[in-house]
Amino acid sequence: MSHRLERDPDELREEDVVTLAANHPFLTIENSHAILRYTNEWDDHEEVDLGEVSGVLKADFPDETTIGVLCELAYVTGGRIMSEDGMLDLKANLPRVTVEPRNGLGLEEWRAHVAAERDLTPTEHGDGVVYAREVLGDREEIEFEYRGGRVLAVYPDPQTLVRLARMARTLNAQLVDEMRGPLDLDTLIGAVGAPGRKYSPRETYAVGEEITHPQFGAGVVMRARSRQVDVEFDGETRRLAHGL
Q1: What is the Cα–Cα distance from 94 to 54, expressed in whole angstroms?
Q2: What CATH number is given for 197-241 in this structure?
């Protein structure tokens, strides 16, 4: 069975594929092709050529890892995944990550955390548990689900993963990927206290990089586009120019 990533040419965002690959442990861009390399559950090394970044990305008889990466690519490029059985539900197939506090997270502690974060919007589902949502700009948003002392979310792009890593650090927790295992917080959001580069619109910045702005102070790049970056400064996200 074949799975194809279909994208509207008018909405094709190749730079998002490149950005995702630059921050992805399995995905690389080689000779304009998207290459997926990982170790499967039987400790076998897998290599999948998904095709040219500017064309139709495709995988034959993909396993869950390959489907998950294809769904990540579909989400960040505004595309959809088609199989012989029809269109896949992206949210259901995106990788899930869990913020796992070392001593557990009580419901009231989670409520207090949501209330203290200015960029989180609490929602109630009728079961007395507070969930939260963060809108990242454009069409992206993260939904955080509290379950049994942990916080679960899906992350379709590096921006979301950085946000989850910062939440994990605030809650003194580890960040666990259902496919990749525990993730290194320092790698995702930079070493604690490391000075960031001075901001200049002529420089180019990557997701997760720390910068220093003359007006807004220290910040972390949460999303990178070809000419703009979204930077989080003390809980407030600002859009800045780069690569001019």
Answers
A1: 22
A2: 2.40.10
